[in-house]
Amino acid sequence: MKNKKNIRSGREDNKRTRCTAKPKKLCLCLAAALMLTACSSESVRPLQSASSISFSWWGSDTRSDYTLSAISEFEKENPGISVITEYCGRSGSARRLAVQKASGSEADVVQLDSYSLDKYSPDGEGFYDLYQLDDIIELDNYDKKYLDYGTIGGKLNGIPISMDAVAFYYREEDFEKLGVKIPTTWEELENAGQIMSRQGVYPLETDMFCFFRMTAAYAEQVTGESFCEDGALAADEEYFRCALDMAIRLLDSKAVIITDDSGVSGIKSWYSAGTACRISDAGYYLELAGKDEVSLMLGEQLTQPQAKKSGWYYEPSAFYSIRKDVSQPENAAKLLNFLINGEEMIYGQGLEKGRPLSRSALEVLEANDMLSGIQESAAEQLDENMSDMEYADPFMDDPEVLTEFGSALDMVRYGETDTAQAAKELCAKLQLEVRG
Questions:
Q1: CATH superfamily placement of domain 28-163+317-387
Q2: Fold adopted by 166-311+398-435
Q3: Which of 90, 287, 299, 417 is disulfide-compatible with 58, CB 3.0–4.6 A?
């Protein structure tokens, strides 16, 4: 691709092309109602005092527990700083941030994904330039190639926490009992579905995000095309027809069931023998599997014979950013530095967000023998495969992409159209989304 560094080196600073849709105007009253509905379980941020800073993130209860515990330690180490926290599930975080950005009420320190970083700071002016705080934030713990992922227009808008990709985890004993091999190709996954479904078991459970990434990988292996190229949507009607064809095949063969909780329910209820999820989301079901003493193994990224390319993407799991007009930049910087380098935070976090990119964080984990287990194996697998993978354009994370893909898939499944027509309409809608 043009304007891209070698994929092991990150995005090209100051010349980054993006396929991100133009932001839409937001009705604050409606958006506020949506936010309350989506994040009804989040903590509610009280009024902020002159000596306090605020921090928001998304994640599971486990993530919130260790984060709150670590922040208590931060406050003890920094008695002049009070941290006000707010958090909710990942699904509600985008709507919450949209409301807060529109009203200027976002937290001082905020956790963002790639799409939100690009959406709210397309020119690097939407968040604080963290290079201006390098006397507090220990940026020397990061290789420059990682900082480049959060650099826009020469300004460091976000610091990545870890690298992420879709990973496959399987309950090996279920496959062995039914005489089915762990799938490495799309055909093998379909065959596994046809056999295992007779016993009421799905080989894989996943959410719509990872299901879309799976079908996109297949489409790219067939067509050799990328989702975005040179800042524009490169996927054409043939790309989306291939993706929709594979989606229908996986669902009809009962190889995959789509849920909204990254495979937690299937692992817990024993109706799925595996899951496809982000590396950074693995803790959701690994914890449940551990309670039931279930043995899980890491699978390979699915491919097919004569694939034209890998088809799989990688990206940062999330970024930490500071709001542009923060009133206490030094205190916010101290908190951000604690989140990525602080021993208490890193020890509690472990590999829950994937293997951290900070060298000091890795030293903490290594000293405590925490660089092990299936999540570390997934990080090692990503390291091995990254040279064949592509960096995900933020547009792939746009919620509208998943919504439109899901709608197209439903129309085909309900017999309202075929994959060719659905692909044509989907391609047109996403082109409009990019152009705004």
A1: Periplasmic binding protein-like II (3.40.190.10)
A2: D-Maltodextrin-Binding Protein; domain 2 (3.40.190)
A3: 90
The reply to whether 28-163+317-387 and 166-311+398-435 are identical in fold is: yes
Residue-wise pLDDT for 69-93, tens only, equals 999 999 999 999 999 999 987 777 8
Residue 211: alpha-carbon gap to chain centroid = 13
The dihedrals phi and psi of 271, each to the nearest 5 degrees, come to -100, 0
Which residues in the chain land under pLDDT 70? Answer: 1-50, 261-270, 283-294, 435-436
Residue ranges per structural domain of the chain: 28-163+317-387, 166-311+398-435
